[in-house]
Design goal:
Helices cover 74% and strands 0% of the residues. The protein is mostly helical. The protein has two domains: 108 residues, no CATH class; 121 residues, no CATH class. The longest helix has 52 residues. The radius of gyration is 28 Å and the shape is elongated.
């Protein structure tokens, strides 16, 4: 059905887009407020990181944890603390790699080599040379460089995947909160749940809640773009 441009209620549409975006921002605000009470939220995505780091920091079978290094459990707790506090990802990866290297010893080098898919004999030799202070041979330096690159790639993969999982879950939880807020707002507007249901507004509230989080970061730009598009078409029609 053709609708004349002059009949389009542009201010109402723009206002609705802004309101939906505001609902999304409010939902994210509520989510942030809930984090201290629901600790699992900040730990979303952390499991994959800890699994990768645990593979690269196995317990030493002989003399124990190398001198001047953290135990495997301490490393995982440090990783967890940095993740929960939202430290910059690049810093988190750099810290994790440093802790992994410090934890390497001749007693666990073979296990670490298996996890990183490098030559175990060379990595054990590197660990022994590092412990004794001896200079690395050319072959050992090459093995150490390959190990460094592989560990970097493994950490980059697990951190990026964890960050994506975390962001996806934040959007999903915020969408649920936005739906609840939209339903609550509808109930208040209609004088309670009975009036809300009688008005058949539940579907509208759910749609508004689901659109809220995607609209939150783009509501202003979308409103401006829509107004510009309508004004452009109005000008073209008047030619």
């Amino acid at each position: 059905m053709h609708v004349p441009l002059q009949q389009l209620q542009l201010p109402a549409i723009v206002s609705a887009i802004g309101a939906i975006g505001g609902l999304g921002a409010a939902a994210f605000g509520v989510l942030e407020a809930l984090k201290p009470f629901f600790g699992f939220i900040n730990r979303i995505g952390l499991g994959g990181i800890q699994s990768t780091v645990a593979q690269l920091t196995p317990p030493a079978s002989g003399a124990g944890t190398p001198l001047n290094a953290l135990t495997g459990g301490q490393i995982l707790r440090a990783i967890e603390a940095n993740w929960i506090n939202g430290r910059n990802l690049a810093d988190q990866k750099a810290i994790a790699k440093s802790l992994i290297k410090l934890h390497l010893s001749a007693d666990n080098a073979a296990q670490v080599a298996a996890a990183a898919n490098v030559d175990p004999a060379h990595l054990v030799a590197v660990a022994r040379s590092a412990a004794s202070g001896a200079a690395l041979t050319a072959e050992q330096s090459d093995a150490w460089s390959r190990f460094d690159l592989i560990v970097t790639a493994m950490l980059d993969e697990c951190y990026q995947r964890a960050d994506q999982i975390y962001r996806n879950w934040m959007r999903a939880i915020a969408s649920g909160i936005a739906v609840v807020l939209a339903v609550a707002g509808g109930c208040l507007l209609d004088g309670g749940w009975a009036g809300f249901r009688a008005g058949n507004d539940l579907g509208l509230a759910v749609i508004a809640g689901l659109l809220a989080t995607p609209f939150a970061p783009i509501a202003k730009d979308l409103s401006t773009a829509l107004a510009t598009a309508v004004n452009t078409m109005q000008a073209v029609k008047n030619l």
